[in-house]
Design goal:
Elements: H1 24-37, H2 41-58, H3 61-77, H4 81-97, H5 101-117, H6 121-135, H7 141-157, H8 161-178, H9 181-197, H10 201-212, H11 217-220, H12 222-238, H13 245-259, H14 262-278, H15 282-299, H16 302-315, H17 318-383, H18 385-449, H19 453-473, H20 483-494, E1 500-504, H21 516-537, E2 541-549, E3 552-559, H22 573-584, E4 588-593, E5 599-606
Parallel strand pairs: 1-2
Antiparallel strand pairs: 2-3, 3-5, 4-5
Helix pairs in contact: 1-2, 1-3, 2-3, 3-4, 4-5, 4-17, 5-6, 5-7, 6-7, 7-8, 7-9, 8-9, 9-10, 9-12, 10-12, 12-13, 13-14, 14-15, 14-16, 15-16, 16-17, 17-18, 18-19, 20-21, 21-22
């Protein structure tokens, strides 16, 4: 099984040896860092509590930043990724206020690593690039090397080979300045793994051998040695050069066992399982698959957990094979859901953090304004009643201006929220289409191979439902194709001799002055209504009418379908989503229908406030 190990260099702060004892803050920082490396959660938690007490007593913001940092480390040990992500963000924000570029860059690097682990590769790329903005000006090459390496890994995951190689080469250039041997070995391994993933094994072997010939690598850097050796063995195995593969795997197994590296032992056992499987020694293959499953469960190595279950389902028979297959399906579904939840949580935290920063800035400005008002009123009282009256009038106008401005800001926030949710829907639709439907196709083929035809047929129906749901969630953009043309294209797609569509008011309006979020809502509303009319109402005529009046845009759609009793029928998911979109933009949606007399849908959206 191919494997890549992504290094993340955490450079410890150096503590100056002074004649006097170090401060309580520095002592707590050092104890906490040692506790993290030793996976001592109790001591780490105690250290973070001490740092918070120091902040509470001395108002030392640096102590608060380290408190959040250590809270993040605590949750990383506990495999609570979303909590770790949140506390890294809090620590980063404090360091931003302190203008500590190094700590901001380090926290962003930690965030990027967490995002990559949750398969949020785009988010990891964004966080890494932001980290470069803080680390490059201060020339912190050790961390820059880690950031470039992470960008290489992320680009490789996104199948951007050229960009990945470019980032790895940048990491190697920086490594010449840092002369960090471990860092060099990890980068060389990652370059080899890049070619290994693309089945260019001869090219991959060149890099693995380059790392293995590094001076005293086996003695000085045993972890990196076994990583390179195992990848070399896998590439040789893939090229059917089986002569020394088993000996290499056994050497990796022995060293990792001595290092108590149980997480990676699961990978080694999977590789040995594949070796014996190829040799038709199914008893040994099953033994190593079971070993891999044990270590993967113990260390929460979800990828190897899935791999072990898949191999055991193929190497077993009868009820055992079905049991392993069911466990594989259940775990895979659980992990997919967990990854999506984490991505959504990451997006929510980013959004709330940005919103909080904007609100704090806004409140500071408003507070300064209020202080100025108080000083001005005091001066006006000295002048007399006349000036006081003028002051009250001025205050009233200020309040009116503030109310109007606040209303406008709230409306703009609603538009941004709608755009954010539309982006989330688009991402979910993409995940459903690309990931879930793809996984279902693979599983469908496996079930057919296992002659489980009835289950395969049911799964095929689930796959089609997932595809339909992804299309329902998909969004639309007006950057390349204008709103008018999009509506005309939509009408053309659905227009038939048995289903005639009429549009009014489309060309009379200036759509360039209408926000994209509103146009997207109008487009999706029309599409949903057309689909309902054709599919459910059995309509033959459909009318669309646009109008803009008194800072509101109106959409009226009618059909001559069979209609329905609005007091009895419940809204489906399409109309429910439409209702949510309209409310997001402070609009109103009303549907009137009579059985046998068609349906009318009315939407009103404010252009601004």
């Amino acid at each position: 099984m191919r494997f890549v190990f992504i290094f993340f260099l955490i450079t410890c702060a150096s503590f100056a040896h002074e004649k006097d004892t170090i401060s309580p803050k520095d002592k707590s920082i050092k104890i906490g860092l040692d506790a993290y490396y030793n996976k001592d959660t109790i001591l780490l938690q105690r250290s973070s509590e001490n740092l918070f007490q120091i902040y509470y007593t001395d108002k030392d913001s640096l102590a608060l930043a380290k408190y959040y940092h250590y809270k993040a480390l605590f949750h990383r040990i506990k495999f609570s990724v979303d909590s770790a992500y949140y506390y890294y963000h809090e620590s980063k924000n404090i360091s931003k206020k302190l203008k500590d570029s190094l700590q901001v860059g380090r926290r962003l690097l930690s965030i990027a690593v967490l995002q990559r682990g949750a398969k949020d590769f785009l988010g990891s790329e964004i966080s890494s690039i932001e980290a470069l903005r803080y680390l490059e000006p201060i020339k912190k090459y050790g961390f820059l090397q880690s950031v470039y390496n992470n960008l290489g890994v992320v680009s490789d995951e996104l199948n951007q080979k050229k960009e990945a190689i470019s980032y790895y080469n940048k990491a190697l250039e920086v490594n010449k300045l840092t002369k960090q041997d471990r860092g060099y070995l990890y980068i060389i391994n990652n370059l080899g793994f890049l070619y290994q993933k693309r089945k260019q094994h001869n090219k991959a072997i060149e890099y693995f051998k380059k790392g293995l010939t590094f001076d005293s690598v086996k003695i000085l850097y045993p972890e990196q040695y076994v990583l390179l050796l195992e990848n070399l063995a896998y590439s040789n195995f893939s090229l059917e050069k089986h002569k020394s593969v088993l000996d290499q795997y056994e050497e990796v197994l022995k060293i990792r066992d001595s290092l108590k590296d149980y997480r990676e032992l699961s990978t080694t056992h999977i590789n040995i399982c594949l070796y014996y499987k190829e040799k038709k020694n199914f008893k040994q293959a099953r033994f190593h698959a079971e070993k891999a499953l044990t270590y993967a469960k113990q260390t929460h190595n979800n990828k190897r957990w899935l791999d072990a279950l898949e191999e055991l389902s193929q190497l077993s028979t009868g009820k055992k094979a079905i049991k392993y297959l069911e466990e594989h399906i259940e775990l895979n579904d659980s992990l997919i859901q967990k990854e999506r939840t984490q991505k959504n949580q990451f997006a929510k935290i980013r959004y709330e953090t940005t919103k909080k920063e904007e609100e704090n800035s806004f409140l500071k400005i408003e507070n300064d304004k209020k202080q100025d008002e108080i000083v001005r009123h005091k001066q006006q009282k000295v002048i007399g009643w006349l000036v006081a009256v003028a002051g009250f009038l001025s205050l009233g106008l200020s309040i009116l201006f503030f109310v109007l401005r606040r209303r406008k800001l709230l409306y703009q926030a609603q538009l941004q929220k709608a755009q954010a949710r539309e982006q989330e829907r688009k991402q979910i639709a993409k995940s459903l289409h690309d990931e879930v439907a793809g996984d279902l196709r693979l599983l469908h083929r496996k079930l057919e191979k296992s002659q489980l035809f009835e289950e395969a047929q049911k799964l095929d129906a689930v796959k089609e439902n997932v595809r339909q749901l992804s299309h329902q969630l998909s969004s639309v953009s007006f950057k390349k194709v204008g709103f008018k043309d999009q509506i005309i294209n939509l009408i053309s797609d659905y227009f038939e001799l048995t289903f005639k569509i009429t549009v009014k008011g489309l060309h009379e309006q200036d759509w360039s002055q209408v926000n994209s979020a509103i146009k997207r809502l109008l487009y999706l509303s029309i599409r949903e209504s057309i689909q309902n009319s054709k599919k459910h109402a059995k309509a033959t005529k459909f009318t669309i009418a646009f109008s803009i009046h008194k800072k509101n845009v109106f959409l009226d759609v009618t059909d001559n379908g069979i209609g329905f009793d609005t007091s009895v029928s419940k809204k489906g998911i399409g109309l429910h989503n439409l209702q949510e979109r309209v409310e997001e933009l402070n609009g109103t949606l009303s549907i009137t229908s009579t059985v046998g007399a068609g349906t009318e849908t009315h939407i009103q959206i404010p252009l601004n406030v």
